[in-house]
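Let's practice the habit of predicting before peeking. Look at the sequence and jot down your guess about where helices and strands might fall. Then scroll down.
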Amino acid sequence: MVLEKYFEARVYNKILGKYLHSKQYEDTMPKTTDNKKPHKSNIHEV
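Done guessing? Here is the structure:
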C-alpha cells in the first residue's frame, strides 16, 4: 500500500513537472501555434 502511494506520487510529480516545464518553455520561447495571446514577435509570421 505504501509502495502504491509512492509510485502514484512519483508519476504525478513527473507529469506535473513535464507540464510546468512545457509551460515555462512556452512562456520563454513563444511559438506561432500559441493561440492564447498573439506575441509581437510572431504576429506577421503566419
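How did you do? The CA atoms of residues 26 and 35 lie 11 Å apart.
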